[in-house]
Write a structure and sequence with these properties.
Layout: H1 2-26, H2 30-38, H3 42-69, E1 72-73, H4 76-90, H5 97-111, H6 115-145, E2 158-159, E3 162-163, H7 164-187, H8 195-220, H9 226-241, H10 251-263, H11 267-286, H12 289-293, H13 301-309, E4 315-316, H14 319-322
Antiparallel strand pairs: 1-4, 2-3
Helix pairs in contact: 1-10, 2-11, 3-4, 3-6, 3-8, 3-11, 4-5, 4-11, 5-6, 6-7, 6-8, 6-9, 8-9, 8-11, 9-10, 10-11
Keywords: Cell membrane, Membrane, Transmembrane, Transmembrane helix
Subcellular location: Cell membrane
Transmembrane segments: 40-58, 78-97, 127-145, 157-180, 200-220, 227-249, 269-291
Length: 324
C-alpha cells in the first residue's frame, strides 16, 4: 500500500505539472516564444550556467555547515558530491523534498548519525535559504513601490506623500533577521551560532542566482526591466520549492507568466527566462546522476573497512565543540 500511495502522489504531481504547462502555453504565442528562444546568445548562457553552478556550491557549503552544527562533520568534496546527488533526485521528485530525504537516509546509513539531527539540519537549510529570498523580494518591492527602480514601478498608493506598500515592505525586511534569531535560539539552540554565517551564504546564493537571471536576460536580449524579472524570479523560487510539481517544473513558468502580466513585462520574454533557467538547472542536476551509479555500496564489508580507515574524515563532532 505505501508503494501504491507513492505512485498516486507522483501521478498527481505529474498531472499538476502538465496542467501548469498547459495554462502557460495556452496564454502564449508559441511562435513568439520560439523567436525569443531562437536568438539566444550561447556565450551568455555559458556565463549563466557558471553562475548557477557557483550558487549551488555555496548552497552545498551552507548545508555542510548545518550538518556540522548537528554533529556530523563532512569533507567539503564529499558534501559537494552529496548535494549534487540530491539535485539529481530533485529533478524527478516534488519540490526538492525527495532529494533532501535521500541525503538524510544516505548519511544515516553511512555514518550512523541519528535521523533527527540530519532532518533538522536539512529543514533549517531550507528555512535559512528562504530568508534572503524574502528579504531581497521585499527590498525590491519597497524600491518598486516607491518608484526608485528604473523601468519597474508597482501599483501603489500614498499617505501623506509616503508610499504605504513601500513602507510596509521595508519595515518587514527589518524583522526577518531578529525573528529568525529568536526562533533559532528558542527551538534549535545547537544550530543558532550558525545563523549569521549561513544567512550570509544564503544571501550570496540568491545574489549569484540573480546574476544568473541577468546573464539569461542578456542572452535573449528581451525587453523590460531587469529588476522586474529578478523580482518575479525571487517570487517564483518560493513557489517552485512547494511540493506541487515535479522538480518545480511548470510552477516557476506559471509564476513568471502571471508576474509578467502584473508588472507589464512581455510574457514571451518572461517565460523564456524561466524555461532557460529550468534548462540550466536540469542540465547541471543531471550531472549528479553520475554519483547515483558510481558510489560506494552501503552495506558490504569492503565499504565498512574503508569507512573505518577514514574515520578521521567522517566523524561526529564532540558535544563540547557543538556548544562552543
Amino acid at each position: 500500500m505505501p508503494n501504491l500511495s507513492g505512485y498516486v502522489k507522483t501521478f498527481l504531481k505529474l498531472g499538476v505539472t502538465g496542467l501548469a504547462f498547459w495554462l502557460v502555453f495556452r496564454k502564449l504565442d508559441a511562435g513568439q516564444l520560439w523567436a525569443v528562444l531562437s536568438r539566444t546568445h550561447l556565450g551568455w548562457l555559458v556565463v549563466a550556467t557558471a553562475l548557477f553552478i557557483a550558487s549551488k556550491v555555496l548552497s552545498a557549503m551552507r548545508l555542510r555547515m548545518l550538518f556540522e552544527a548537528g554533529g556530523l562533520r563532512l569533507p567539503a568534496g564529499f558534501a559537494l558530491r552529496l548535494y549534487w546527488l540530491g539535485m539529481f533526485y530533485n529533478l524527478f521528485l516534488p519540490g526538492g523534498i525527495g532529494g533532501d530525504g535521500y541525503k538524510v537516509y544516505y548519511l544515516n546509513q553511512l555514518t550512523g548519525v541519528g535521523i533527527k539531527p540530519l532532518i533538522t539540519a536539512t529543514l533549517l537549510d531550507r528555512f535559512i535559504g528562504l530568508l534572503p529570498i524574502l528579504w531581497l523580494t521585499l527590498l525590491l518591492a519597497s524600491l518598486a513601490f516607491s518608484g526608485h527602480l528604473p523601468g519597474f514601478t508597482l501599483p501603489t498608493y500614498t499617505l501623506g506623500g509616503v508610499s504605504v506598500p513601500a513602507l510596509l515592505a521595508l519595515t518587514a525586511t527589518a524583522f526577518i533577521r531578529p525573528v529568525a534569531a529568536w526562533a533559532m535560539h528558542r527551538f534549535f539552540p545547537h544550530f543558532a551560532p550558525k545563523l549569521n554565517p549561513t544567512m550570509l551564504q544564503s544571501l550570496g546564493v540568491q545574489a549569484v542566482q540573480c546574476l544568473c537571471v541577468w546573464a539569461i536576460y542578456r542572452a535573449i536580449a528581451t525587453n523590460g526591466s531587469l529588476f522586474a524579472y529578478q523580482f518575479i524570479f525571487l517570487v517564483s523560487s518560493v513557489v517552485a520549492a512547494l511540493p506541487l510539481t515535479l522538480g518545480g517544473a511548470g510552477a516557476r513558468e506559471l509564476t513568471f507568466l502571471a508576474g509578467a502580466r502584473y508588472v507589464g513585462l512581455p510574457a514571451d520574454g518572461a517565460v523564456a527566462i524561466s524555461l532557460l533557467f529550468y534548462g540550466i538547472t536540469a542540465l547541471v542536476s543531471l550531472s549528479g546522476g553520475y554519483y547515483s551509479w558510481n558510489k560506494l555500496p552501503l552495506h558490504n564489508h569492503t565499504y565498512h573497512e574503508n569507512f573505518a580507515h577514514r574515520r578521521g574524515r567522517f566523524h561526529r563532532v564532540p558535544s563540547d565543540e557543538k556548544t562552543a
